[in-house]
């Protein structure tokens, strides 16, 4: 705590302020200005804040600033300044108070760096999974093209090709090539950054995800059941929601392939719930162990082996839903398997960060 007159001359302070000023007694600072203190290089900035408060009569509250120290370190402060008035109400200076939040600030910086690392690792893992899914998408078309080419060669050897037959086979190859081209477009669009908020329908969000992972389900004999009970539009970042749904569907598929031999299924449903859209993804993979499900959204927690899981997918899913959509995600076990419930507000842009 400190107080100054209209000329920026110190009139007094408490012991905590003296400690930061590297002074032993209050008498050492009375009569001095910021230009004589260890933070003299930033003195004009501090005095400008003082002038604004004195001239406007309006307090300046809880703003973050730095205070240089003689050892080269800079403290991070949460500062408030209010007009200092005499008994008649006339402004005679300023009264300031600040709290040293350096440690809290440094901790937040460390957490931000860790979050950046987790995001990078998650994106790398997602890239690997996308390449794997491209392989699933391309496997059948490439096999079809190879079969047509082999058939044409056999017909040439036997001398039996007809113009009509060749045209049909050429059309079949072109259809498969068109499918391969569309697949590349879908996957390329997935990685294009799009931070524009758009009004979308739940069915469109789900179908966008299924364009990427649908072939994976088919190739692994996983039945897909969809129930779209919500047709109401809601605000979203479409690419981020697609990432969330792909992750949930891919995780369910992996568990089914590992644990279920036949009658595999994934159910996706949507419904309205007040001012929220609810999307549920469930499977019959047997569920998640109790000791894991309690920590399922924490980084590096995974139900997969070390070669197939990074433990970052669901962590990023939760970050997207809670931080970017102001919604919630819950994981529970049903009688047959895991159930993930997404609850997304109709318009997250009108909600505060609190």
Give a written overview of the molecule.
α3 (102-158) packs across α5 and α5 runs parallel beside α6. The protein has 354 residues and is an alpha+beta fold. 46% of the residues lie in helices and 24% in strands. A hairpin with a 5-residue loop joins β4 (74-85) and β5. The chain starts with a strand and ends in a 9-residue tail after the last strand. The strands form three sheets. Strands 2-1-5-4-3 form a five-stranded antiparallel β-sheet. Strands 7-9-10-12-11 form a five-stranded mixed β-sheet. Strands 6-8 form a two-stranded antiparallel sheet.
In summary, what is this structure?
The protein has 354 residues and is an alpha+beta fold. The chain has eight helices and twelve strands. Strand 4 and strand 5 form a beta hairpin.
Layout: helices, strands, pairs:
Blueprint lengths: L1 E4 L4 E4 L1 H6 L22 H14 L3 E9 L5 E12 L5 E10 L1 H57 L4 H29 L6 E3 L1 H18 L2 E7 L5 E3 L1 H22 L4 E10 L2 E8 L6 H4 L19 H12 L3 E6 L4 E8 L9
Parallel strand pairs: 7-9
Antiparallel strand pairs: 1-2, 1-5, 3-4, 4-5, 6-8, 9-10, 10-12, 11-12
Quantity of strands, as a count:
12
> Numbering strands along the chain, what is their spatial order in the largest sheet?
2-1-5-4-3
How many individual helices? 8
Bin the helical content: 40-55%
- What is the residue-averaged pLDDT? 86
Oligomer: single chain
Task: Classify the secondary structure makeup into a structural class.
Answer: alpha+beta
Shape: elongated
- Main sheet properties: 5 strands, antiparallel
Distance between the ends: 30 Å
């Amino acid at each position: 705590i400190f107080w100054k007159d209209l000329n920026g001359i110190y009139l007094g302070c408490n012991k905590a302020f003296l400690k930061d000023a590297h002074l032993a007694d209050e008498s050492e600072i009375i009569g001095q200005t910021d230009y004589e203190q260890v933070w003299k290089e930033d003195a004009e900035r501090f005095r400008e804040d003082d002038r604004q408060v004195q001239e406007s009569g309006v307090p300046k509250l809880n703003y973050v600033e730095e205070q240089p120290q003689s050892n080269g370190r800079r403290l991070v402060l949460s500062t408030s300044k209010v007009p200092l008035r005499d008994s008649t109400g006339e402004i005679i200076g300023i009264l300031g108070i600040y709290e040293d939040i350096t440690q809290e600030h440094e901790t937040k910086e460390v957490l931000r760096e860790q979050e950046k690392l987790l995001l990078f690792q998650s994106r790398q893992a997602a890239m690997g999974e996308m390449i794997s899914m491209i392989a699933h998408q391309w496997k059948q078309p490439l096999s079809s093209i190879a079969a047509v080419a082999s058939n044409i060669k056999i017909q040439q050897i036997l001398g039996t090709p007809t113009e009509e037959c060749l045209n049909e086979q050429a059309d079949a190859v072109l259809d498969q090539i068109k499918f391969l081209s569309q697949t590349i477009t879908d996957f390329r669009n997935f990685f294009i950054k799009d931070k524009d908020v758009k009004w979308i329908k739940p069915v469109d969000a789900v179908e966008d995800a299924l364009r990427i992972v649908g072939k994976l389900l088919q190739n692994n004999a996983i039945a897909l059941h969809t129930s779209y009970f919500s047709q109401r539009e809601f605000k979203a970042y479409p690419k981020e929601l697609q990432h969330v749904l792909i992750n949930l569907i891919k995780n369910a598929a992996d568990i089914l392939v590992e644990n279920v031999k036949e009658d595999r299924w994934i159910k996706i449903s949507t419904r309205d719930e007040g001012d929220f859209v609810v999307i549920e993804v469930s499977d019959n993979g047997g569920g998640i162990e109790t000791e894991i499900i309690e920590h399922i959204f924490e980084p590096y927690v995974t139900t997969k082996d070390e070669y197939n899981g990074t433990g970052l997918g669901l962590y990023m899913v939760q970050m997207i839903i809670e931080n970017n959509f102001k919604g919630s995600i819950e994981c529970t076990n049903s009688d047959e398997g895991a159930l993930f419930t997404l609850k997304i507000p109709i318009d997250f842009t009108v909600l505060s960060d609190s």
